Amino acid sequence: PGWSKDPPQTIDRMKQSLIDKKPAYIILQPEWSDYEGIYEVNEYVRKNCYEETKMGYAVIFRCSR
After folding, report:
1. 10 close to 37: Cβ distance less than 8 angstroms
2. pTM over 0.85
3. What pLDDT, in 10s, does the model give residues 15-53?
4. CB-based contact 17:36 (threshold 8 Å)
5. Strand ranges (DSSP E) for the chain?
6. At what angle do helices 7-21 and 38-48 cross, to 10 degrees?
7. C-alpha to C-alpha distance for 21 and 28, rounded to whole angstroms
8. In Å, how far are 20, 22, 24, 37, 42 from 34, measured between CA atoms?
């Protein structure tokens, strides 16, 4: 979102996409988690997913459908 021409609109579309597409998994890399839109992704994960496993560079969340 930070690289887009309209970051707020991009974040809104990303949030709606998460709601519409209901991903089965979300993989987050903590070292890459300082960007516009991460708050919204974290809120979605907090409400809809649980941590399944940690890898050396990432955390895998399984999301409810």
Report:
1. yes
2. no
3. 999 999 999 999 999 887 788 888 999 999 999 999 999
4. no
5. 25-28, 49-54, 59-63
6. 20
7. 17
8. 24, 23, 23, 9, 11
